[in-house]
Specification:
Bound molecules: flavin-adenine dinucleotide
Number of helices: 8
Largest sheet: 9 strands, mixed
Distance between the termini: 47 Å
Shape: globular
Order of helices and strands: EHEEHEEHEHEEHEEEEHEEEEEHEEEH
């Protein structure tokens, strides 16, 4: 008997919703299975905003994927009429030799991306909310900005359904196994067969993809909203860029303009170093000492921002040891199963291109996009306490 579906997508968060949309648009029969409801806040794709940028300090190898992601984000807005991207400009701030500034500059120069370098004086004059030290500089990129994650996921789910996908919510996958030339996928409600399975489990990767050999650490991250002293006027997106700011110790803080109106504040967060957690044990309460710590840290850099604390929301990173993604065919079941995980706190800006890549891998067995950086084989031999 032929399998009931061409492709099953496990997880309809950022990556899975994009995969479902791209697959369905190619005319194949898709089933999406999601543990929670559509567009929920219990994974990694909520919180109102995500930074997007092209002069990528993490590695120039990401740039071609970003160029494609920008095109696909535009298409997504056009096709669904949703408000997704606001290109308000972005600053990478730090000392000239910091990873944030030097890395961004390297990508900008290697890929000939439009950018400006600003010294501390120029930075203070042009963006008066910021008070950098005299030895700090910034790379300014006009094409950087922010994406709305909930609208992105909703848009991909909408397109998937428009193209005929079946999406089941509140139906977690309990296990799957190879079956004939494809897979058999079990939930509490049913058992489904498909030729292909794509696993996009976010922070549930350690339990669902233990066999892929990727050492993923799930981290608890906090997003903070503050109402600036003197109001949000200078923080409006027409005047204020997104920013990533690295200090002498390598600590990075990042933030957004005030996009939710005059009394809903502006969002800010530390980039790295969350406490280790699991999706089941994460402490979702944001504590006073945590709010005080970020407010004190911001004081010398954005003096008016930590006015009144509005709210704090937790989210999870799924971090690999080198902070690069994992996107590949499953090492043990390469024909039938594709995996996408370990997005290490910087995956959202890639969501639509990851959807395209996953559709390529599942349907064609390969992709023209450069993804060798994301091969899980790079961790081989490093598991179980190896070096
Ligand atoms: C605080 C914070 C700030 C961030 N900032 C940025 C940023 O500025 N720029 C940027 O590019 N990226 C950023 N990121 C990273 C980005 O948001 C993530 O990389 C991306 O959202 C990950 O998407 P995902 O699909 O892997 O995970 P998710 O969106 O969490 O999706 C995984 C899905 O799988 C489902 N699932 C799990 N187990 C099962 C099961 N057994 N059966 C069925 N479904 C299951 C889950 O319910 C979930 O819906 C940030 C992340 C956080 C937390």
């Amino acid at each position: 008997m032929a399998p009931a579906y061409d492709v099953i997508v496990l997880g309809l968060g950022g990556m899975g919703s994009a995969a479902a949309a791209h697959l369905a648009a190619r005319g194949v029969k898709v089933l999406g299975l999601e543990k929670f409801g559509p567009v929920h806040n219990r994974g990694s794709s909520h919180g109102g905003s995500r930074i997007t940028r092209q002069s990528y300090f993490e590695d120039p190898a990401y740039v071609p994927l970003l160029l494609r992601a920008y095109e696909l984000y535009e298409e997504l807005e056009r096709e669904t009429g949703r408000d997704i991207a606001t290109l308000c400009g972005g600053l990478m701030i730090g000392r000239p030799d910091s990873r944030t500034v030097a890395g961004a500059r390297r990508s900008a120069e290697q890929w000939d991306l439009p950018h400006e370098m600003l010294d501390a004086e120029q930075l203070r004059r042009r963006f008066p909310t910021l008070t950098p030290a005299d030895d700090e500089v910034a790379l300014y990129e006009a094409r950087a900005g922010l994406l709305r994650p909930e609208n992105t996921v909703a848009a991909h789910l909408q397109l998937a359904v428009r193209h005929g996908a079946s999406l089941h919510y509140e139906e977690p996958v309990t296990r799957w196994e190879p079956y004939r030339d494809g897979v058999r996928v079990h939930t509490r409600e049913d058992v489904y067969t498909a030729s292909r399975l794509i696993i996009c489990p976010g922070a549930w990767a350690p339990e669902l993809l233990a066999d892929v050999g990727v050492p993923i650490t799930v981290e608890r991250k906090i997003m903070y909203w503050f109402q600036p002293r003197g109001g949000t006027g200078p923080y409006r997106p027409e005047r204020h860029p997104v920013y990533v700011w690295e200090d002498r110790e390598g600590i990075q803080v990042y933030g957004f303009p005030a996009i939710d109106g005059p009394d809903r504040g502006a969002k800010v967060a530390f980039f790295r170093d969350g406490g280790v957690c699991t999706p089941e044990t994460i402490d979702r309460t944001v504590h006073d000492h945590e709010i005080r710590a970020i407010a004190d840290y911001l004081g010398p850099r954005l003096p008016t921002l930590p006015g009144t604390f509005i709210k704090g929301v937790t989210c999870m990173y799924s971090t690999t040891p080198d902070e690069h993604f994992v996107i590949a065919r499953h090492p043990e079941h390469p024909e039938a199963v594709t995996v996408a995980c370990g997005f290490s706190g910087h995956g959202f800006k890639f969501v639509p291109v990851v959807g395209e890549i996953l559709a390529d891998l599942a349907l064609e067995g390969g992709t023209p996009h450069p993804i060798s950086l994301f091969d899980p084989a790079r961790f081989a031999g490093k598991l179980n306490g190896g070096s």
